Amino acid sequence: MTRRPDGMLNHNLFDEDKGPQDACGIFGVWAPGEEVAKLSFYGLYALQHRGQESAGIATSDGDRILVYKDMGLVSQVFTESDLAVLKGNLAIGHCRYSTTGSSTWVNAQPTLRPTKYGTLALAHNGNLTNTGSLAELVQKLEATPTKSERVATTDTEIMTALIALQNEKNVEASALAVLPLLEGAFSIVFMDENTLYAARDRHGVRPLVIGKLERGWVVASESAALDIVGASFVREVEPGEFLAINEDGIRSHRWSEPEPKGCLFEYVYLARPDTTIAGRGIHATRVHIGAQLAREAPVDADLVIPVPESGTPAAIGYAKESGIPYGLGLVKNSYVGRTFIQPSQTIRQLGIR
After folding, report:
1. What percent of the chain has pLDDT over 70?
2. pLDDT confidence of 102, banded at 50, 70, 90?
3. 253-280: burial string, b at 16+ Cβ within 10 Å, e else
4. Which of 89, 91, 34 is nearest to 62 (CA)?
């Protein structure tokens, strides 16, 4: 909040205070014989609530990686013909809410980077806190800077560059060398021409789950994205865990001892109501929060009215616990995106009119 000239408070953020800004949706699939681009499309569609500014998919047929990304919603970015071109055995996808860097095409993901052992594509949900020192390290390692994506301003590009520039035998070894250098919150999926990789920060701030297809594996930000592609939930990627998935199966490495510190905002706002995080259903948790609020802050009121949509389960819980009737008083335009994750306060305000 900021203070108005008359001394009253308003809800504009201070210039230096952008609020919580590390919501994105990521999806990865390794499934030879399946239409991995379409699976990624549906997975991202289920994760659209996590990012509405841009969307992208990278696929590999074993020889080369193709990336298609653009500004807009998942349904606006991809057509049937676009997906038909993105053939392969594995894919990663991303829908973006800008956390660092501007909301422009060049900062859309997945990022792509050549390496000495092939090509690397990466998608990231989170926010690194030591990008300054990491960027300096990239400059030291990069003897001849490439022109591709040098104008990107995201921590994702820095992460991609660090992995690509390591003097290791393969992507897996390079990633295991880089992960301990990263500070902050991150869940990532990335790929070379043949292998799907995934990793989660030591605190497990952002969710990441593993699902099983009949002929492959899926990694996604939320369990709801597994359901839409017909994958069965296996488990969460553990904090401090690294995964590699290819024809040899799944390899798991513990790159850091876990120090779980989940983000409350996932339960309050970011995650879908039908998602489960750390064994807790999001809808049930929000109802419980509302009931607890009624116990801690009772009021004499005639009606409990939710602020849709994320506030609805909490309002139900408050009404049930307090005995105050529940009713609708605010109606949200279904064609307006999620207001919190709009890239500017002006657009947020237009979205709630």
Report:
1. 84
2. low
3. eebbeeeeebbeebbbbbbbbebbbeee
4. 89
Over 70: is that where the pLDDT of 11 sits? no
Could you give the count of Cα atoms lying within 13 Å of 30 in the half-sphere of its Cβ?
Answer: 22
Q: Which fold has domain 25-254?
A: Glutamine Phosphoribosylpyrophosphate, subunit 1, domain 1 (3.60.20)
The answer to whether 274 and 216 have CB atoms below 8 angstroms apart is no
**What's the angle, vertex CA 63, arms to CA 59 and CA 64, rounded to 5?**
45
Look up 24 and say whether it is catalytic: yes
Mean pLDDT throughout 23-37? 96
Report the DSSP pairing between strands 9-10 and 25-30: unpaired
Which one of the listed residues 22, 23, 24, 25 is annotated catalytic? 24
Residue 1's pLDDT band, with cuts at 50, 70 and 90, is: very low
- The mean of the pLDDT values for the chain is 88
- Predicted TM-score (pTM) of this structure: 0.85
Which of 212, 211, 263 shows the shortest CA–CA distance to 220? 211
Query: How, if at all, do strands 118-128 and 9-10 pair?
Result: unpaired
Computed from CA positions of residues 340, 341, 346, 350, in that sequence, does the dihedral angle turn out positive or negative? negative
Residue 66 has pLDDT above 80, yes or no: yes
Q: Which amino acid is at 117?
A: Y
Name the segment(s) of the chain with CATH classification 3.60.20.10.
25-254
Gap between the Cα atoms of 3 and 196, Å rounded: 49
95 contacts 50 by C-beta, under 8 angstroms: yes
Q: How far is CA 304 from CA 218, 292, 294, 312, 313, in A?
A: 40, 14, 11, 10, 11
What's the pLDDT tens digit per position in 166-214? 999 999 999 999 999 999 999 999 999 999 999 999 999 999 999 999 9
Q: Which helix (H) or strand (E) holds 281?
A: strand 280-281
C-alpha distances out from residue 103 to 51, 93, 99, 153, 196, Å: 11, 17, 9, 10, 27
